[in-house]
Design a protein that fits this description.
The protein is an all-alpha fold. The protein has helices at about 20-30, 50-60, 70-75, 105-115, 120-125, 135-145, 160-165, 185-195, 210-225, 235. The two termini are about 30 Å apart.
């Protein structure tokens, strides 16, 4: 792995190298046309010409400033809230080690990301994200670590954060229609994919939270017995794993 940098802890631009560049590349490669694009292995972890072009393509699609620089707004649309997009006083996800006894927004993100990845993690967690890293969260983390071939110690450090970003596509922010800071991006794409896999959504995987996505969420919420408001928070994230 390239040198470890917490994703979102620095602005990324051409010439940079590190694990945060590699994760950004991974996100862009996963997204379908016309949002994402392939980046060759030659640039893995290095912000070169291909990565610059891919970032600009992503920015253009979402109506962001097309400068090839991954700053606060581009990170948000990659599903990574930073700076003023974080709740007041909240730490950036990945900025501190998480383990049993930890509490806060980043634990909430951890729990959401695990819950939306696979149903076995929701079963281990036992309930929606509550910001408290207890024994059940520890069990879910260990299960995830075993799945990605890491030491299953229940402690979330750089290697576990890296794999969480690779395998868990949403959970860092509330998603909802008619909120410009909540209704477009990488995590909305994964939301739509999950809803489609569960048979609630038949629209395009366009990463834009429109009426069809909202209606699909309301149907899911009604089916699982939670408030059908079309807003994706902890309770809804808990029911989004499709396998």
């Amino acid at each position: 792995m390239a040198d470890d940098f917490v994703l979102g802890s620095r602005i990324l631009r051409r010439g940079d190298t590190g694990s945060d560049v590699e994760l950004t590349q991974n996100f862009l490669k996963v997204l379908p046309e016309p949002i994402g694009t392939q980046i060759s292995m030659a640039e893995k972890g290095t912000f070169g010409r291909e990565t610059d072009m891919a970032v600009k393509k992503f920015q253009k699609y979402f109506g962001l400033t097309v400068d090839g620089v991954v700053g606060k707004n581009t990170f948000l649309f990659l599903g990574v809230p930073t700076g003023s997009y974080l709740p007041p006083g909240a730490p950036l996800f990945g900025a501190r080690t998480l383990q049993r006894g930890s509490f806060g927004y980043d634990v909430w993100v951890l729990q959401n990301r695990l819950a939306t990845t696979a149903k076995k993690f929701t079963q281990a967690l036992g309930g929606p994200a509550d910001k408290s890293f207890g024994s059940r969260t520890e069990a879910a983390v260990k299960m995830f670590q075993r799945d990605v071939h890491l030491m299953a110690d229940g402690v979330v450090g750089p290697k576990t954060f890296f794999q969480l970003y690779n395998f868990a596509g949403m959970g860092a922010r509330i998603l909802q229609r008619n909120r410009g800071d909540r209704n477009r991006g990488y995590d909305v794409y994964w939301l739509q994919r999950s809803l489609k896999d569960q048979g609630y959504y038949e629209g395009k995987l366009d990463a834009i939270f429109g009426p069809a996505t909202e209606e699909a969420i309301k149907q899911l919420q009604a089916a699982v017995g939670i408030k059908a408001d079309g807003i994706v928070g902890a309770q809804t994230f808990y029911h989004l794993a499709s396998f």
